[in-house]
Specification:
With 460 residues, this protein is α/β, with parallel strands linked by helices. The chain has 14 helices and 18 strands. It folds into two domains: 194 residues, Alpha-Beta Complex (Aspartate Aminotransferase, domain 1), CATH 3.90.1150.10; 248 residues, Type I PLP-dependent aspartate aminotransferase-like (Major domain) (Aspartate Aminotransferase, domain 2). The strands form five sheets. Strands 6-14-13-12-11-7-10 form a seven-stranded mixed beta sheet, sandwiched between helices. Strands 3-4-5-17 form a four-stranded mixed beta sheet. The radius of gyration is 23 Å and the shape is globular.
Length: 460
């Protein structure tokens, strides 16, 4: 018998085939719409990665509200993906919808500050503990702009990232360790410049490697998620960030924390909840309730250095900011989201349900004696195909199994449950209910039960 990740692989393959057939049979309208779209959309979808789900053709969403959405064939789903964090506080939260409706007749963009700008910046400062803020349309842009500012402010050219990191579409971060050698990712299309000239990469949780890189004296900043989240989940080991922050400061570099995913850790993100003191901080996706927007903040000292760099430069375009950055529409949505949706009460509800979900997954995994683990940070939960939590990007990548992931994801989808593609991440939102979690756990166990080796069969 062929086993993989503790499962009978023949049973997994049979399950996957049956689920594909079921999906095709139950979604004729999505199939029709996908066929029409293929006539004019590159790859048949609005963005090519929408083809990377487990489905034979794209599922078309008709409407979404709270923790649920409905597809073109009328099926309702409980959403544990939530736009891969973009809708972390639920689809179309009412305060945000009301703010958008009010703003819809008052203008969208003017290249001038709106009345919401000051209050939004003040609230960001209160939450995250950094006094000075700017805006972008995505976390990718925010990270890109921060790197420009910090290179200008420090006079240093290099950025350090951790192996397996994710910071959106910023070219600089598409460098991995391959057999210990910094290597530009083959997946990055159309890149003609040698990224390894200005990007240094080390393993997460590896303090000696971090110190050795910083000692060279040419690192402008370390750009990091406080918990790695896009290669599965990798938690910092005890004492890692305390020591890492000391090393970064000692060697004259700056620390940029990307909280786009780890905002699931609390109203002020993981860094605030765990006493970290970054020089700069980025939040994207969910900050304005799903409307395209991102923010980045600086300490007072760094803000003064950044201002000096700009004022000392020749006049002209800085390469930082776009015409629609901080537009009135996004600012109105963000203010409502910050003030009325991202509340302490909402987080406490999400934390309780995520803990219920994580504990339930652990019980199922233990009951079926699978060599898997579960990690939770705040509202975010991940199961991984490895007995113990990975310590770095290399270990996390080795635990991933795209075929198995897709089989599980499609099984759940056919039963009205959506989880994040590409890995096994699950989010809960303020509108998620305890019975939704129980529905997911029951379906997950049914999926596992249908794939584990039959008792008495031989293992090779």
């Amino acid at each position: 018998m062929n086993t993989r990740a503790g499962l009978d692989w023949q049973r997994v393959q049979a399950l996957a085939g049956a689920e594909r057939s079921s999906y095709i049979a139950r979604n004729p309208e999505s199939a029709r719409l996908a066929g029409e779209a293929a006539q004019h959309l590159l790859f048949g979808v609005p963005m090519h990665w929408m083809n990377d789900w487990s489905t034979p053709f794209a599922l078309t969403v008709r409407e979404a509200s709270g923790a649920r959405f409905r597809d073109a064939d009328g099926h309702e789903y409980v959403d544990f993906c939530l736009g891969d964090t973009g809708a972390m506080f639920g689809h179309a939260p009412q305060p945000v919808a009301q703010a958008i409706a009010r703003q819809s007749t008052r203008g969208y963009t003017a290249m001038l500050p709106s009345e919401d700008a000051g209050p939004v910046a003040a609230e960001l400062s209160r939450r995250f503990g950094l006094p000075c803020w700017q805006f972008a349309l995505s976390a990718s842009d925010a990270n890109r702009f921060v790197l420009r500012w910090l290179r200008a402010a420090t006079g240093r050219s290099k950025v350090l990232v951790f192996n397996g990191c994710y910071h959106g579409t910023v070219d600089d971060v598409f460098v991995d360790l391959v057999d210990g050698v910094p290597t530009q990712r083959d997946s990055l299309l159309g890149q003609v410049h040698k990224l390894t000239d200005h990007t240094v990469v080390v393993e997460f949780n590896d303090l000696p490697a971090l110190e050795a890189a910083l000692k060279q004296g040419d690192i402008a900043c370390v750009l990091a998620e406080p918990v790695m989240t896009n290669v599965g989940m990798v938690l910092p080991q005890e004492g890692f960030w305390e020591a890492a922050q000391q090393l970064i400061k000692q060697h004259g570099a700056l620390l940029v924390i990307d909280e786009t995913h780890t905002i699931s850790s609390g109203p002020g993100g993981y860094a605030r909840a765990n006493g970290m003191q970054p020089d700069a901080l980025v939040v994207g996706k969910p900050i304005s309730g799903g409307i395209p927007c991102a923010v980045y903040g600086f300490t007072e000292e760094l803000a003064r250095r950044v201002e000096h760099a700009k004022r000392s430069a020749p006049p002209g375009h800085s390469g930082i900011g776009t015409t629609l950055s901080a537009n009135m529409f996004a600012m109105a949505a963000m203010r409502a989201n910050l003030e009325e949706v991202m509340t302490e009460a909402a987080y406490q509800h999400m934390f309780a349900l995520a803990a219920q979900l994580a504990n339930g997954l652990r019980e199922i995994i233990a009951r079926h004696q699978l060599p898997w683990c579960v990690t939770q940070i705040g509202a975010r939960t991940e199961f991984q195909f490895t007995p113990s939590a990975p310590r770095n990007g290399t270990e996390a990548q080795a635990a991933m199994d795209s075929e198995l992931e897709q089989a599980i994801h499609l099984y759940l989808l056919n039963r009205g449950l959506l989880i994040t593609p590409f890995h096994n991440m699950l989010l809960v939102c303020p509108q998620t209910r305890a019975e939704d979690v129980q529905q997911l756990l029951a379906a997950f166990e049914d999926c596992v039960r249908s794939s584990v080796p039959v008792p008495g069969s031989c293992r090779f």
